[in-house]
Specification:
Helices cover 29% and strands 19% of the residues. It is an alpha/beta fold. It has two domains: 15-284 and 448-512, FAD/NAD(P)-binding domain (3-Layer(bba) Sandwich), CATH 3.50.50.60; 293-441, Succinate dehydrogenase/fumarate reductase flavoprotein, catalytic domain (Flavocytochrome C3, Chain A, domain 1). The structure holds flavin-adenine dinucleotide.
């Protein structure tokens, strides 16, 4: 076999655990592996459909991060008086952004079934005393790649007020509801491998906290929901090499929450491969990444005034969101970028807060300046009486930077961006002191998306695209859901998919 065809070490199944170390067997209709949003939704909907259901998870508790969840519509949106939008063209634009390398049936299932799933979730969470709100998104310019459709839901209550940060409340409420419905959860119990009989997945072998093993038999099916593989260096090198160096976590914390350097080691993906799954067709796997939000005027945005590279040159049309900003900046020398603006920017641009609600008013210029001052005091922004002082404080070449600013200001005064064709409404001169500036080089590496070949019913498939009987997956590990980069045009899309496909798949497996 040539070097090229040699399997990577993670593709080689481990030897089965000696039978004497498997100290017990438990049986259920459905076994769900992993307790993030996807696993919980699958487990609860299977239980509600009458299946005896057990969650087994390596984490000590339900796992959460962020809390923005997309649904195309919901009774919450109706109560806010929002109309149903026709998103047909928007979805085509999104397929183009994904180079048409995604399974459209999954996306249209999200479009057509997420309302039912969100209404189901909202009923559960409201019963547990949470409020479901609508997170604000960028509303500018429909059909521009900065626009985001309404539909990002968030959960507040019990001390959480900011939209997009309440997932820990939601998963706790889901776990409670699942247990009250007669479901069972085994915590701190990582799954090690799957067992098959006559071609069908029939059981999961899991490791108990003390080190012994248990065999969890599943009469109807096993649903894998073990999250991503961003902390597995070998898998990253094979399936997402460009961003492999940016994920530095060892992946040994199964409770990992709001972390931006890697989450898990892809254990569910590996178990699926050992059970005969093929890898997804799209290569490389899509990364979820965002650029710095400093100086931004919109949710999920990045500074939309003048951006410069470390040579003091302007390098792009700044009208883009945080994900696209990160990718654009990575192409500049050293992957570095900076922004400089004047106090007048606070008055001449509409500012909306990231993490705000749809009904919140625009920020006033005074609020905007207060935010900047707060960031100055934290060392995130620099401030100066002259543009030269700000450029110097940022370490930029002052002469080249001043030349760029003179040119940019002239374009702003002319109301026409002859260099990068930015819309006139986003051309604000850098005019009034004090001036502010920041580095935009920081990036947030959230996760990598993808895994075993998965059809739109969430059945894991082999190399002939045939489902492996008894084996399903949901959540971040689903194959062929995204390509290129996760572009944040649908904020909360991944949690929306965890919810929608978790809800649908749990029911489907229960009805097997
Ligand atoms: C900082 C941050 C913020 C984010 N915010 C958002 C957001 O607001 N909206 C959004 O859509 N997306 C967000 N994401 C992406 C987010 O991580 C995913 O959308 C979401 O967590 C996917 O859920 P999941 O259920 O697939 O997996 P996870 O939530 O990652 O859960 C995986 C579960 O599997 C368990 N597990 C792992 N290995 C094993 C094993 N061998 N055996 C048993 N159990 C195992 C884990 O312990 C965990 O319980 C964010 C990501 C980051 C890093």
């Amino acid at each position: 076999m040539s070097e090229y065809l040699k399997p990577a070490s993670f593709e080689i199944p481990p030897p089965p655990v000696p039978e004497e170390q498997i100290t017990g067997t438990l049986t259920a209709d459905v076994v769900v592996v992993g307790e993030g949003l996807a696993g919980l939704c699958a487990a609860l909907s299977a239980r509600q459909a009458g299946a005896e259901t057990r969650i087994v998870t390596a984490s000590a508790r339900p796992v959460a991060r962020g809390g923005s969840v997309f649904a195309s519509y919901s009774r919450i949106m109706a109560a806010h008086g929002l109309p149903r939008l026709d998103l047909d063209d928007f979805f085509l634009e999104e397929f183009a952004a994904n180079s048409f390398q995604v399974d459209q049936r999954k996306w249209y299932t999200l479009l057509d079934r997420s309302e039912e799933a969100m209404d189901w979730l909202a009923d559960i969470l409201e019963k547990e005393g949470l409020e479901v709100v609508l997170e604000d998104a960028n509303r500018d310019d429909c059909h521009s790649p900065t626009w985001q459709p309404p539909g990002t839901h968030a959960f507040v209550g019990k001390g959480v007020t900011r939209a997009g940060t309440g997932m820990s409340l939601a998963v706790a409420a889901l776990e409670k509801t699942f247990l009250e419905a007669g479901g069972e959860v085994l915590h701190s119990t990582p799954a090690r491998y799957l067992e098959k009989a006559d071609g069908r997945v029939t059981a999961v072998v899991v490791q108990k906290p003390g080190g012994d093993y248990l065999r969890l038999k599943a009469r109807k099916g096993v649903i894998l929901a073990t999250g991503d593989f961003s902390a597995n260096k070998e898998m990253m090198a094979k399936y997402c090499p460009q961003y492999a160096p940016d994920f530095t976590s060892a992946g040994d914390d199964y409770d990992v929450g709001f972390a931006v350097r890697g989450l898990y080691r892809g254990e569910g993906q590996q178990m699926a491969l050992w059970a005969g799954a093929a890898w997804q067709k799209t290569w490389p796997c899509a990364v979820m990444i965002q650029g710095s939000r400093l100086g931004t005027s919109m949710p999920y945005g990045s500074h939309r005034g003048l951006r410069l590279n470390r040579r003091g040159e302007r390098y792009c049309n700044e009208d883009m969101n945080g994900a696209y900003t990160a990718l654009t900046t990575l192409r500049e020398p050293g992957g570095q970028a900076y922004a400089i603006w004047g106090s007048n920017y606070a008055r001449e641009t509409v500012f909306r807060a990231h993490g705000g609600r749809r009904e919140d008013p625009d920020l006033t210029p005074e609020q905007v300046i207060a935010n900047w001052e707060d960031q100055v005091s934290k060392g995130q922004l620099v401030k100066g009486d002259t543009v030269e002082a700000v450029a110097e404080a940022l370490g930029l070449p002052v002469e080249a930077t001043m030349e760029t600013i003179r040119r940019y200001n002239a374009l702003c005064r002319a109301g026409k961006d002859g260099d990068f064709h930015k819309k006139p409404k986003y051309l604000q001169e850098i005019r009034e002191a004090p001036f502010y500036g920041c580095s935009l080089s920081d990036r947030l590496f959230f996760t990598v998306l993808g895994g075993p070949r998965t059809n739109y019913k969430m059945q894991i498939c082999d190399g002939r695209d045939e489902p492996i009987p008894g084996l399903w997956c949901v959540g971040s590990m689903v194959g062929d859901m995204y390509a290129n980069c996760y572009n944040f045009r649908i904020p909360g899309q991944n949690y929306g998919a965890c919810l929608t496909f978790g809800y649908l798949t749990g029911k489907r497996v229960a009805e097997e």
